[in-house]
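Interim report, section 4.2 (structural modelling).
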Amino acid sequence: MKEDHRSGCPINLTLEILGDRWSLIIIRDMMFGNRRHFRELLTQSEEGIASNILADRLKRLLEKGLITRADDPSHKQKAVYSLTDMAIGLVPLFAHMGAWGRRHLPVSEELSIRAELLEEGGPALWEAFMAELRAIHLGAPRPARSVFGELRAAYEAVLARQQARQPA
Amino acid sequence: MKEDHRSGCPINLTLEILGDRWSLIIIRDMMFGNRRHFRELLTQSEEGIASNILADRLKRLLEKGLITRADDPSHKQKAVYSLTDMAIGLVPLFAHMGAWGRRHLPVSEELSIRAELLEEGGPALWEAFMAELRAIHLGAPRPARSVFGELRAAYEAVLARQQARQPA
DNA sequence: GCAAACCAGTTGCACAATGAAAGCGGTTGA
DNA sequence: TCAACCGCTTTCATTGTGCAACTGGTTTGC
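Predicted structure of the assembly:
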């Protein structure tokens, strides 16, 4: 029960939870890629997370209240992970991280289109996306606008354009 | 020269640079506490960083272009560290991290007052702060408004109020 | 009905990162 | 001259990371 923190600074406390190389990658995949199962997160990750690291991080995110775990009714040994409101509140942070990375780091076109849209859309778009995430992960009423669909469509459009330019 | 990245995703690339427990703490102290020397960062850190970790992180941040190092003309073996424009661009990210931490984590009053002001001030305040940081760290002309002073004054006001309530 | 594929993880092991403490040679101010 | 200070480095014990193989159970396809 007793947890000791390095300090009560909000930046520090946030880093104590999210300050590693994998936690935000997992939340990103759940949020933008709608990966909800262990195997999806394991095998469809661009970055290639190891299964023991994934298991460890899921456990930590559960403890910290960023995700929840439920049994999948369609499959006895499948588990479904969902984002909590706390994690959904990270959308603006992802938007800024993406904007900063896009400006300063060697990003690839297809993986940064979503960051571009998120940056251009601003707080209004973030709010719409968060409302949709609350519908997907928390069972809230589904809003009319699907930012998730817009982001996915833009991503697939870039992929299609790239394939047309240089076919496999 | 050759560096291989896990992926070209802007979130991932940002995490590869800043995704650890200390890098952002150091930038925070330089940015909000104006710590410019090794000893200042080592001894005045709330969280108590070890000297070897600090030396390692400063080297990495130098390599990645987030800070610069210069000799202090007043003292032959003093070094002055400065933020680059790239690091100053993290101000909105700190604002969101602070806001998120304040909302969801057990922050202390005196260390979160700055996050509160930064959240309330919004993008206009962030821009003013960034202009001032460019003056402090990059030699740009000093703007009329000192957000840095406002933040420090608010912090000290909270400290004074706490001491009045419960004197040492 | 049975084998193959799939499920969420766990285990064992090598290596890298972290962190506390002491120490380094040189510089400065009294 | 001497103590305090300067930016680190070294040593060593502990912890975290990452790969690969594996577990017991479930579902799918034939």
